[in-house]
Design a protein that fits this description.
Layout lengths: L1 H29 L1 E7 L7 H20 L7 E7 L5 H13 L5 E4 L3 H14 L3 E3 L12 E3 L8 H9 L8 E7 L2 H16 L7 E6 L7 H11 L5 E6 L5 H10 L9 E3 L4 H4 L11 E4 L8 H16 L12 H20 L4 H8 L3 E3 L5 E4 L6 E2 L3 E5 L5 E6 L26
Parallel strand pairs: 1-2, 1-3, 3-4, 4-5, 6-7, 6-8, 8-9, 9-10
Antiparallel strand pairs: 10-14, 11-12, 12-13, 14-15
Length: 422
């Protein structure tokens, strides 16, 4: 009888301890807010996206050290969709349904974003997309912290056509074969036509993801440029294909003074993989460059360099910052501000609180989220490649430009509303 009583006491004590443990775990869970990081850490896009994962983790660490969000720590859930577009959708569903994240920061290519959009819409999730893109989209569940075409592509081509940019009359539209380059080039063709550029003066070519042999294409570009008028190349090549493209550009002796190349997906991170000396003078159009001098950017660079050493990242002594990293940093901080304004991580409440959020960005500008269209007002900068792989800013807008998600150069866009359909 005594043994049975002892057994019952032990069982009750065990149950109490288990219950206590559950309460403790539940309390711990309630003290954290899970956020998803959805970037390719392997495959063709890892060259660009890995740094965005690190930037997100660094920013989360910074926020946690300053008290978290509404007094709660952020807990990062990192997944690797491996440059596999259908896998992006699977991983986003996992983050929202299994991991129960409150928000996701991720994607680079437009095809990956298009893949996950239906998932975020179905599950009413929230995605912050940090890379320049082709526009022609406005989703309730997405905030776009990269550039729309009027904040990058159009100003870059206008610069190439100007006297300062070389007065280009012929254009090579060269890109990776997917939605972003093709749609951007559709917009640019219409823009060039509006400026009197004939179809015969536009060459358009595409290569698959991971393409590595650019000898034939560079030869075609040289032949096209030799036909007379001043020629420029507009590159929407994405991912690790940029390394062989720029190497071949150097090997072929195609200098910026002869045929300037302006890139929309090449920044400091991509140039770490090539010898930049033969590329001096070629261009990139972004909303931020590491070489910008101001106290906010100096702090941002120092923070990332310190993070790289602390995490023992590969080549930690030579890490760089770039535009999509800045856009990631801005997006996470703006989400934090919106959550605290809404006093909730509820997606609809955060969406309502995002419009008008402001943040002093490393670019040196106070960046604002548009009140309606889910895009940032951003400055536009054009930089020349220097021998050390950095950029010298040769042109910039006086201040931030409001995004146009629906390009005025696409027929019928004048009837589309500048706000997402709820």
């Amino acid at each position: 009888m005594k043994t049975r009583r002892n057994f019952l006491k032990l069982t009750a004590l065990s149950s109490l301890m288990t219950l206590s443990g559950l309460v403790s775990l539940s309390a711990f869970a309630a003290d954290t807010i899970k956020v998803g990081i959805l970037h390719s850490l392997s495959g063709t896009m890892a060259i660009s996206e890995t740094a965005l994962k690190e930037t997100a983790l660094m920013t989360i660490d910074e926020i946690n050290k300053s008290g978290g969000v509404m007094g709660k720590k952020l807990e990062a859930v990192v997944v690797d969709p491996a440059s596999n577009w259908p896998l992006f959708a699977e991983k986003s569903r996992q983050l929202l349904t299994q991991d129960k994240v409150s928000v996701v920061f991720g994607c680079w290519t437009s095809v990956s974003r298009k893949s996950v959009n239906p998932v975020f819409k179905e599950l009413n999730g929230l995605l912050f997309y940090p890379v320049q893109y082709e526009g022609e989209e406005l989703e309730k569940n997405v905030f776009y912290t990269g550039a729309a075409p009027n904040q990058q592509a159009i100003p870059a081509v206008e610069y190439l056509m100007s006297k300062d940019g070389g007065s280009a009359k012929r254009f090579v539209l060269l890109g990776t074969d997917y939605v972003y380059p093709r749609t951007t080039n559709k917009i640019l063709r219409a823009f060039l036509k509006s400026k009197g550029v004939a179809d015969a003066d536009i060459m358009e070519d595409y290569t698959p993801f991971g393409h590595s042999d650019y000898q034939t294409i560079i030869a075609k570009i040289k032949k096209f440029a030799a036909e007379g008028k001043k020629t420029a190349v507009v590159s929407t090549i994405n991912g690790d294909s940029n390394v062989p493209f720029y190497k071949e550009l150097g090997n072929a002796g195609l200098k910026a003074t002869d045929v300037p190349v302006v890139a929309f997906s090449v920044g400091e991170e991509e140039l770490r993989g090539v010898d930049a000396k033969p590329l001096v003078g070629h261009l990139a159009a972004w909303n931020y460059f590491m070489s910008i001098k101001n106290p906010t950017n100096a702090k941002f660079i120092k923070m990332y360099q310190g993070w790289a050493k602390k995490q023992k990242l590969p080549n930690a002594d030579t890490v760089v910052t770039n535009d999509p990293m800045e856009a990631t940093y801005i997006g996470i901080h703006m989400w934090k501000q919106a959550v605290e304004k809404a006093k909730s991580t509820d997606v609809d409440k955060v969406i309502a609180a995002m419009g008008g959020q402001k943040f002093k960005a490393p670019s040196g500008f106070e960046i604002e989220m548009d009140a309606k269209n889910h895009h940032l007002h951003k400055p536009v900068l054009i930089g020349e490649i220097k021998a050390d792989g950095q950029f010298n800013v040769v042109w910039k807008t006086k201040g931030p430009i409001k995004a146009q998600p629906w390009s005025p150069y696409i027929t019928g866009n004048d009837k589309k509303k500048d706000e997402p359909q709820m």
